[in-house]
Every structure is written in C-alpha cells, then in structure tokens.
C-alpha cells in the first residue's frame, strides 16, 4: 500500500501539464494534512515536474530530458528574472526554443520571431501585440506594464506575458547563464545514465529464507541482493557476511543489513564513487522515492568514470576555466608541476588568489602526481593545508606535487606552491584509489 506521500506524488504526476496545484487543494482532495501536501509538492519540484512561481502558484510542467536540458520553460524564466506574470499564465509550462531582443523596427523584427520563442523588449505596446500574434511570448524589461488589450490577448493565446525590473541586457545575460549552467549539467554523468534499464535487478523478498539466498547465488554468481517488502520498497540488503553461519531456514529479514545506503537516479557518478569507496560498498541500490529502480556496482562506476575522461566538455566548469590557464610540467623525475598565471577570475575581493582556486590546483597537481606512478582513477579524500601566503593577481605560480606514499587503496602527495622561487603554500593531498 502506498504511503500518503507517495499517493500525492502519483496524483501530481498524473495531472495534465499546465495544471495548477496548491497545498490546500491537495490536502482537501486527498484528505491529508497540509504539511504532508507541502512536503510532497516540494519533492515534486525537486524531481522537475512542477514549478512554483511567485504570485502565480505551482504549475505542473513537463519533465525535461537531458537532450532538451538547454531549453527552459517559461515558468523557469519567470523565476530566473524575478518576473511578474501579467497574462497568459496557462502557457507557463511551455518550452521556449530561443529568445530575441526587440531592438529594431517592427517589420524587421517579425522575421526573427518564431512560435514558442521569447521576445525581450521594453515599453513598446505595438511590439507586444505583434509578438503574441506570431506565437511568441513577451518579456517586458524595465518593470513596465502592458495594456489591458495585450493582457487579454496573452490569456486568449495562452502565451506568457512577463514583466521584469531588470534591463534588457541583464535579462538576456541571466537567461544565457541559466542555459549555460544547464549545458554543464548535461555533461555531468548521473546514475540514471549508467543504469541499465533492460537489466532488472535480482532481488529478495521479506519472508524468504537463507536457502533462497543460496539458490540465487548459484543461479546468478552474485552474492549481494536488495531486499524488498510487499510494496516494492527497499528495506535491506543481504550479503555473504550477513548469512555467514546461519541455517537455511532463517528468515532473510532477520540477517539482512537494514536501512541500507542508497542513491537516487539524479546522484552524480562522481559522488556515488566517493560514497562507495568511503563506505566500502560493492553494490548500491538505486531508489526513486523508496522504490527500487536498479542497482549499480563499483565496476559500473569505474567504467563510467573512465568514459567521462574521454569525452569533450561542452560547458566549462570553474575547474575547467582555472586549469585552462595552467600547463602541466613533467620534466622532473619524481614530481609534476602546474605552471600558470593568476587571472582576475581566480581572485577574491582583495585581489589575491582565492582559496577555492588553490584547492583546485592542489587537487589537480596531487592527482597528476599519483597517476604518473599508478594509472588509476582517484577520489579526493583529504587536503590538509599547512600555510598559505597571499598571492596577488597576475602572479605566475608553480604548484609542485611529489608522491610520498602510495598503496593499493590510497596515495599521498606533498604539494608546494611557489612564486618567483619563494614558497607560498604547502599542503598534504590524500586520495582513495578506485580499483579498475
């Protein structure tokens, strides 16, 4: 039987795209408390199936797939630009394909306006009307209002009419930034990307016995299985260690490990790898809510990390931006160095290199030093910084790393930061090794 929380999520998923929902409405229709309804709506928002807009409410939206992640819904645009919806709220769930800045004459502008695009323009009532008539939503910059006629047309055509206090250039920059952030997210490998949907996990049920576990081991060659209850919710995981010394007639729920560590389909592969190493886990159940949707092994994660390293990146992360200004020097026998210049993007408000940038450089140099000796995949475990002197903007620095200890499961490197031959910082870098 589904919990009240799960019933609400199922109810929301079955609503038509564009439907409005509220805490009070959910509580009344499903006979649940407003607190329970609120928590379920927030989880639906996290899953990307609803969007909450100030002064409009919560709207059911289409869940975007990774291939469409560079497109935004109009509801998301409203939140990005702190906008006010003047009309056409029924179309907030729609996706915009491009945006156009209305800085030209109307006749020339029409050539660039397509259906499902967004026109960003100031206080030009004639342009607002023409844009809506051509199937494009309108975002009015400068905080201006629209005429009653335009608002009525937006409602009729179900095309959002939005007003934002920001100027046109700022609005365009904010939307561009949101799309760029999504492109970065598009490149990040998630658990759902490596989960084999055609391969259903082998499971055990509450009520089965150790004898059933032994039979599954013989059939599959595996020894770790998630345990589900009657509602397909995961309640434990059973391994060789759990059943060791137990007789065949012992119930599996009495020996299983309860409340096992799990990940969601939206967890990144990198964080999942770190968790598996840190906790010493070989198999992780993947759950959506509390429902089991699959399992991933340490081998699955290692293969995924190796795949990531071979892929070109579309959107640059902060780490990418920093490292593009540094070159790798392997001329020394026992050490590697990153050499480059501190650019304005890498500094803090005082004009010195930021601590975050130094952490990126220390981690990269330490990782490169360990990989030079042992070609393995690494997960950063600890960085202990002993001291740092201020390093100012436009300084050329050398981040030198030398391995001081390496074993089967971990590696350590001594990292030193130099500027003009003077020691500016020192750190101990430790990483866990992912067995291939």
Automatic annotation (TrEMBL):
Record flagged with keyword Signal: no
Coiled coil: none
Alphabetical list of SMART domains matching this protein: CBS (SM00116)
Domain CBS: 195-254, 256-311
Keyword Transcription applies: yes
GO molecular function: DNA binding; DNA-binding transcription factor activity
Keyword annotations from UniProtKB, A to Z: CBS domain, DNA-binding, Transcription, Transcription regulation
Stored PANTHER family: CBS DOMAIN-CONTAINING PROTEIN, CBS DOMAIN-CONTAINING PROTEIN CBSX3, MITOCHONDRIAL
Protein name according to UniProt: Thioesterase
Organism the protein comes from: Collibacillus ludicampi
